[in-house]
Amino acid sequence: MKDITCIKKIIIWLPAVIIIIMIFILTFQSPEKTGTLSMEAQEAVVSTVSNVGVERKKLIQCWWYDFNNFRRLAHIVEYFPLGIAVVIPFRIVYKKKSVRLSFLVCALVSLIDQSLKGILPTREFDVKDMVLDLIGYAMGILLTAILIKICSKRKIRDT
User: Fold this and answer.
1) What is the model's pTM?
2) From CA 48, how far away is CA 28, in angstroms rounded?
3) Contact, 132 vs 73, CB < 8 A?
4) CA–CA separation, 33 and 42 (whole Å)
5) Count of structural domains, the chain
6) Alpha-carbon gap, residue 21 to 58, rounded angstroms
7) Gap between the Cα atoms of 20 and 54, Å rounded
8) Where in the sequence is the domain holding 44, given as residue range(s)?
9) Tens digits of per-residue pLDDT, 31-69?
10) Which residues are CB-neighbours of 135 under 8 A, at least 6 positions away?
């Protein structure tokens, strides 16, 4: 029985661990590789939105199309799933403290990420990136916490 509980604990934390590993892999990439990845992602977004019917010319004029702005926005996208992946296991284990603990863990990951960038010769520490990280994981944590609350109230009401 203890083995099953241990396996469950590992499984519920696995998504968060995978996302953290991905964040650090991106941190250790060269600026050229991250730049290429950003350009490919940007082109994928433009192509997808163009396929929906928005003219490419209009997209290119958008503020987010600027390469630096797009790269900054990537921090939100990068940390949003981390917020979700951290708050769910904390909610299962600690219930009421889940949001605070999730913010703490995500902030720590963001701080370590930026600190590593400050140490690496080809990267740099950037407080603005930490703010964007905060926006991403805060959205993930709060949205998930709200959805969990709504679902749990419905379960109580339905029983």
Assistant:
1) 0.86
2) 28
3) yes
4) 14
5) 1
6) 36
7) 34
8) 2-158
9) 889 889 988 988 888 888 877 777 777 777 777 778 788
10) 75, 76, 79
